Amino acid sequence: PYEVLVVGQGPAGCAAAIYLARKGINTGLVGERFGGQVLDTLGIENIVSIPYTEGPRFAAALEEHVNAYEIDVITSQVATALVPPSEPGGLFTVNFGDDASLRARSVVVATGARWRNMGVPGEQEYRNKGVTYCPHCDGPLFKGKDVAVIGGGNSGIEAAIDLAGITRHVTVLEFMPECKADDILLDKVRSLPNVTIITNARTTEVLGDGSRVTGLGYVDRATDEARTVEIAGVFVQIGLLPNTEWLKGTLDLTPRGDIVSDPRGATSVEGVLAAGDCSSTPYKQIVVAQGSGAAAGLSAWDYLIRTKAP
Ligand code: FAD
């Protein structure tokens, strides 16, 4: 068994594993694919001290850093259950499918999250060519242009407020007859001259010229009329889903599925730490995930030195 098993090989999991290995802890780092969500992105401009990098290059750098230590890396494994020890301080078991498992005295969960897609034609084709999911990451790429935000919940309206300060005009498309965001955010967005909110809008298609997004098709659900808006970018804000389904019933989760965790990464089960986009740490960003991964790694070490094995 390992002293600590880190599940998830994105920025958070890699940070936790490196911090643990640097303390001489016998560490396993297991996951589905090395690098995490950054593999799906092209330009990254907000890793502080790295003015520009690209997703695959950043993932390769993460891997090189991890490989500089004696960390046992196991890829292409999807965790399906976490089983706590029968006595305090004992071994946790992490199951992978029906017949594989790994054991460790402490577990760091860093399985990240995934953006909910619109599921309309053009969305995948124009990903990173105008279709984006992260205003903090890609907002500046659309400086002075017209953009759309899909979703009138809190994250969509926050995105619209953010983008109104950077882009020329923002159109918010909300499926329901009313936006669900908090009143304070709606008051703010309605006060902005360059934001238009369209409710009852069912997005049907992302339009493009083959290399870039040029517009968006939607149906007005009240009249059944098909319409288009000309825009250069679409920010999809209809939900970030944490990869925590496998932990239901074992760890306390928030209503939206994030693992309830404190600033040290401590969860509802002693010896299990959480970090990054799967945890309740606010702001889903690379540097934030790395910071919380470092904290979770140090907390796992702290748990080991303070707990007696049975
Ligand atoms: P993740 O990166 O999600 O890594 C988690 C890993 O765990 C994944 O490899 C996943 O496959 C694996 N996993 C999931 N479930 C299981 C399981 N059951 N068993 C085993 N493994 C599992 N942030 C920025 O700061 N700047 C940017 O420019 C930026 N651009 C982005 C662009 C896109 C298109 C996307 C999608 C995200 C972007 N982000 C950006 C957000 C950033 O990528 C995330 O905040 C960050 O990757 C979170 O790191 P993480 O380690 O918590 O999780």
Automatic annotation (TrEMBL):
Residues 2-293 form the FAD/NAD(P)-binding domain. It catalyses: [thioredoxin]-dithiol + NADP(+) = [thioredoxin]-disulfide + NADPH + H(+). It is an enzyme of class 1 (oxidoreductase). Its cofactor is FAD. The keyword Calcium does not apply. Its EC number is 1.8.1.-. Keywords: Disulfide bond, FAD, Flavoprotein, NAD, Oxidoreductase, Redox-active center. Belongs to the class-II pyridine nucleotide-disulfide oxidoreductase family. Homodimer. This is Alkyl hydroperoxide reductase subunit F. It comes from Brooklawnia cerclae. The chain holds residues 218 to 527 of 530 of the full protein.
